[in-house]
Amino acid sequence: MQLKMTLDELNAFMNEQFPQVSDDFEVLDVAPMHATIRLNVDDKHLRPGGTVSGPTMFALADVSVYLATLAMIGPKALAVTTNISMDFMRKPTSGANLRSETRLLKLGKVLAVGDVLIFSEGDDRPVARASMTYSIPPGQ
Amino acid sequence: MQLKMTLDELNAFMNEQFPQVSDDFEVLDVAPMHATIRLNVDDKHLRPGGTVSGPTMFALADVSVYLATLAMIGPKALAVTTNISMDFMRKPTSGANLRSETRLLKLGKVLAVGDVLIFSEGDDRPVARASMTYSIPPGQ
Amino acid sequence: MQLKMTLDELNAFMNEQFPQVSDDFEVLDVAPMHATIRLNVDDKHLRPGGTVSGPTMFALADVSVYLATLAMIGPKALAVTTNISMDFMRKPTSGANLRSETRLLKLGKVLAVGDVLIFSEGDDRPVARASMTYSIPPGQ
Amino acid sequence: MQLKMTLDELNAFMNEQFPQVSDDFEVLDVAPMHATIRLNVDDKHLRPGGTVSGPTMFALADVSVYLATLAMIGPKALAVTTNISMDFMRKPTSGANLRSETRLLKLGKVLAVGDVLIFSEGDDRPVARASMTYSIPPGQ
User: Where does residue B138 rank: exposed (0-12), middle (13-18), buried (19+ CB within 10 A)?
Assistant: First the structure.
């Protein structure tokens, strides 16, 4: 299986399509069925106490599987999240950016399934785990 | 089972503890093991195309089970989300607020489990479904 | 929305298609987007200690959403489970049959989503909760 | 982190505690926070059509995380499954045994979280993915 989008194309696509969040996310690495994405943590992502909020980790997982899928099927797709399951396992490190490691487990005609581990940069124990299903519209 | 917090106490607690999001959420109704909460949809909650974003629905589900749990155990708790599963079933109606209907299915000493249906106001077909587990710290 | 299969037709369908487990399950009630199903608990369903095993509760949830879906789309379908999430909340009562209450939350052309509460007969606190997604093959 | 049970001890533990299913499962490999387990597929595991049933894959995932956890905390534990999420991604190969690859992502005092990929032997594309949470009783 081959990539249909490069690292630069993925970052450019995100800047164009999601300008309001594109400063938050940066694709660090992409390979067939894999992607590594950083979330630049900012005050707006924090809960009282200084750790990254649940919705922010959800957003990182969602973007990560979405971009890993687009890297394989190309930028025209309008995949829609249909299911997510997440486990929150540790408090993210205060002040550290987050990094997601995504692998696509299935890339079918109708459904794509990926899983994600989320880390605080500088710590190799995952803070959260997610698995997500995307529905891929026909005729793309 | 009896409520330990009234509707007004829940809304006041949210304003105090989460001032940055308390304008977004309003507890409309609370009963033993149940809560109804409105999300006042705003530009910041929208995706391109005008529908409410996934992370926003996640945040609504998370707040809903959290507040339904606090209503039963009182405001001192520091419950932590450990697991969530969500199904996104329909596009939310553009321009409509969201309403969540939450029921607690288990309220143990260590874990609370709740499920949530999310609706666009004015439509009785759910746009999303969530189930969540909260870990309740000992000694509370 | 209208039923395409009656209670008797659902039970007959199960006997014909799944003879090896049809003694285990009995559809007690069916209505548009709802079904109530009993699991007749037997030694083979038990874990050491006498409570119903996890795989047995999984099977009950799976059958329940499947039959609730067939009731709406008719007996020719070959729907396939694509996702399940379950919370196990209480030990089932030793010696009691299980009863599932299923509601379909979405019945689309491609995906059906349902959720299930499982009870030990004689106790109104749920022992488990499940949500499931079925993929409906095209052209049915 | 160190193992508290060897491969042989895990297999012996399973034979003793779960005699009714111990022929089905065999621990092939164990390492800190990892385990590889085989399901010897038999007629009783099959659905009409000859593929392994959902409840059977559930049972494999459940046993896998359970044994990976016991390997780390020792055989006295009575861990209880509290949550599972599974994605079924491909039909298992007809006639092939299944193999699970499990990694523990968190081993806390109260909760353990693991994820599992399930393969048909001879094919490196996962047929299913699971993540599971176990509650570890206090005082163990």
Answer: exposed
Which chain A residue's Cα is nearest to D134? A87
Largest CA distance in chain D: 47
Q: What's the distance, CA D37 to chain centroid?
A: 6
Q: Are A85 and C85 within 8 A, CB to CB?
A: yes
Taking the C-alpha atoms of residue B85 and residue C85, their distance in angstroms, rounded to an integer, is 7
Count CB-CB contacts under 10 A for residue B49. Answer: 8
For domain D7-135, the CATH superfamily is Hotdog Thioesterase (3.10.129.10)
Q: Determine the 3-state secondary structure of A17 from DSSP.
A: helix
CB distance A5 to A69 below 8 Å? no
Average pLDDT of chain D to the nearest whole number = 91
Rounded average pLDDT over B15-35 = 90
Chain D positions contacting chain C at CB under 8 Å are 17-18, 48, 53-56, 58-59, 62, 80-89
Token pair, residue D112, equals 């353990």
Give the residue numbers in B contacting C (CB under 8 Å), as ranges. 85, 87, 89-90, 105-106, 108, 113, 115, 117, 125-126, 129, 131, 133
* pLDDT above 50 for B140: no
Say if the Cβ atoms of D89 and A113 lie within 8 Å.
yes
CB contact under 8 A, B87 and C133: yes
Query: How confident is the model over A47-86, as pLDDT tens digits?
Result: 777 789 899 999 999 999 999 999 999 987 678 899 999 9
> Is the CA virtual torsion A85, A89, A94, A98 positive or negative?
negative
* ipTM for the assembly: 0.92
Residue C65 tokens, joined = 């959403």
Q: Residue A86 and residue A66: Cα distance in Å, rounded?
A: 16
Domain borders along chain C are 7-135
pTM (2 decimals)?
0.94
Whole-angstrom Cα distance, residue D57 to residue D98? 9
Give the number of residues written for chain A: 140
Letter for the amino acid at A77?
A
Q: Other CB atoms closer than 10 Å to residue B8's CB: what's the count?
A: 10
Let me know: does D47 contact D92? Beta carbons within 8 Å: no
Give the containing element (helix H, strand E) for A4.
Answer: none
Question: What tens digit of pLDDT does each residue of D28-53 get?
Answer: 999 999 999 999 999 888 877 778 98
- Neighbours, chain A (3 or more CB pairs < 8 A): B, C, D
User: At CA C122, angle to CA B130 and CA C12, rounded to 5?
Assistant: 75
Kindly list the residues of chain C whose beta carbon comes within 8 Å of any beta carbon in chain B.
Answer: 85, 87, 89-90, 105-106, 108, 113, 115, 117, 125-126, 129, 131, 133
Would you say B102 and B35 are in contact if contact means Cβ atoms under 8 Å apart? yes
d(CA D70, CA D83): 17
Structure token pair of residue D18: 């779960």
